[in-house]
Amino acid sequence: MYSILLFLGLSIISTFAIATPLKGFVVTSYSKNIYSSPTSDAVIQEMAASGIEVVEVMATYYVQNSVNSTYIFADATGTPTDADILHVLNTIKNNNMIVAFKPHIDCLDGIWRANIGTHFTSSQQWVDWFSNYTKFILHFVDLANQAGPGVVKYFNVGTELDGTHSHETEWRQVIADVRQNLQDKSIKLWLGPNWGWDNIPGYMLVHFWDALDYLGVDMYAPLSPNGQPEITLQMAIEGWQPLIANLSKFWQQQGGNKSFIFAEIGYASYQDAAINAPGCCTGAPNTTIQQILYQSFFDAIWTQPWMGGVFWWAWDASNSVGNPCSTDFNVYRKPAQLVLEQAYKNNPQSNQVRIIPSLSSSSSSIRSTNASPLVVYSNGNYSQWQDWSWGSAITNLQSTTDPYPSHQQSGLVTFNSSNYGAFVLHNIQDSVDISMYTYLQFDIRISNSTDSTELTAWFCVDRNCATSLPSVELVLYGTEVTTCTLPTSWDSNPNAAIVQIPLTSLGVNGTTNSKISRLSIGAQGVEKGFSFTFDNLMFI
């Protein structure tokens, strides 16, 4: 009998070992109306294109302070409305992904939410806190029910509330109330304690894991084995080893039949990410360190037998443009996005960090249709367009001064004063349909990197530019990710000068705004003599 039981137990563990982990990412908004916006819709589309399958939707309610507040409330401007949340849930569904709900509590006094309850002085405060928390969490249960079957499949019942986890009885009741009120009884539950609390892993202080479907942790442990910010992939993998040992031991102690969810994990693209993972975002950007740390997770953790899924922190729903120069947690248009896509799309992995000069120049970032590229300008040819440049922008579309390699001519734009102006190409038939394309792509170099931040691109819908679509700064798409500037020469690798802008960030959504009349690249306040050279301007 003992041998049979042991065999069955090992069979359960083996089943978990071969299960596919959840391929997740957290989407965030700290404002009302964002989740209902076209910007958020574009973010969700990009998340789906990156191979993400489960989106953990965060919405934050607040307490006044962390010392003695028990009342939980929605902030008038900082909390998404119910309509916002239902909109983003439906958008996720329409993009063939599923939802994990992630209700948050923050403290308006700026103190870390883990301290909630640590200064309560009476039992009544605990009664009030859990009563209010139950009302709060059941509100999101109601939203999950409203979303309809199959939309919300996972539910994070608590994020980093470590100061409350010793109240086991109350937490068991919260979990029971969630299960009772969810219409879809197949929805799986987890909890996200901090990776460290009271000098030990926070998950070890939770004694009600049997009431949940997954073990959980918000994993922001430092990965530098020597405490220094500079790190290699091998060093980061080494830094994971003691953490793996602790997680493996705890998983076995819990019976080995309930896998771990990393309810949060993230690394900002800044210099100290390996030694201060929760921190951001001061100092110079460093996308290479962020990329290395992402890769170390997939090399060291992704195939662990207890790994049930991961939710990366965080994709900002208010930013569909992306910024490779930022020092925040986002990965959009940074090298870490390629690491994510390779893992989530099951592309072959290697133990070599894939340092890429520009995400925009990678074929994996091109998600166009099968339509042939629409070439606007190349090697001095622009037959379907007219030069309508204005202001101080003097344009030579057949310049031989510094042509793109293998070309005889390129476009040269020079600003003859420190005023403003724009290089403009106008379609000879007044409009062109670009609904079947995904990106505006071109090659560019500039003469003055300091002034490159002034360059912006935008479209006009009509002949007279009475309607202009949103503009984006070209510096956001600069390919020199270590300096975050546009290149000043074609150099030995002309592909390093490529710029690729999602049309959604320029206001083209493929339906109402699908035709444009003019394409403009302009500047304001640049120095006299500032110039840029461009070529291979096309829609893909």
Task: Describe the structure in your own words.
The chain is α/β, with parallel strands linked by helices and 540 residues long. It folds into two domains: 15-355, TIM Barrel (Alpha-Beta Barrel), CATH 3.20.20; 374-539, Galactose-binding domain-like (Jelly Rolls, Sandwich), CATH 2.60.120. It is built from eight helices and 22 strands. The protein has helices at 2-18, 38-49, 82-94, 123-147, 168-181, 233-253, 287-300, 335-344, and strands spanning 22-28, 54-63, 98-107, 152-159, 188-192, 215-219, 260-265, 307-316, 374-377, 385-387, 390-391, 393-399, 410-415, 420-427, 432-433, 439-446, 456-460, 472-473, 498-502, 515-516, 518-524, 531-539. An eight-stranded parallel β-sheet has the order 5-4-3-2-1-8-7-6. Strands 9, 12, 13, 16, 19 and 22 form a six-stranded antiparallel β-sheet that branches. Helix 7 (287-300) packs parallel to helix 8 (335-344). The termini are far apart. Residues 1-18 and 348-370 have low confidence and may be disordered.
